[in-house]
Amino acid sequence: MTNRVELAVEAAAKALHETVRRQHQLRWELMTERWRADMRDYVRPCVLATLKVADTLSPQPRRPTVPSRISLRARG
């Protein structure tokens, strides 16, 4: 898997855990590695599907462009 996928899986697993945990449960950083691995495995299919759709809609991110001074002068 790519670093992009792993970062997205980690973020999704942490977000899910923090969203659904009860007040007395441990925060993500204090959970066991086994718990975190299970959460990553749980969210991985959703993350992969989301990234696939995102890549289909926008295969390459567009870099913002700043209008040059020449084009601004031409506009008047």
Beta content comes to under 5%
Helix content: 55-70%
Question: Which class best fits the helix and strand makeup?
Answer: mainly alpha
What number is the mean pLDDT?
A: 85
Written account of the structure:
With 76 residues, this protein is an all-alpha fold. The chain has one domain (3-57). It is built from three helices and no strands. The chain is elongated.
Write out key terms for the chains shown.
single chain; 76 residues; mainly alpha; 3 helices; elongated
List the helices and strands and how they pair.
Layout: H1 3-20, H2 33-57, H3 69-75
Summary, kept brief:
The chain is mostly helical. It has one domain. It has 3 helices and no strands.
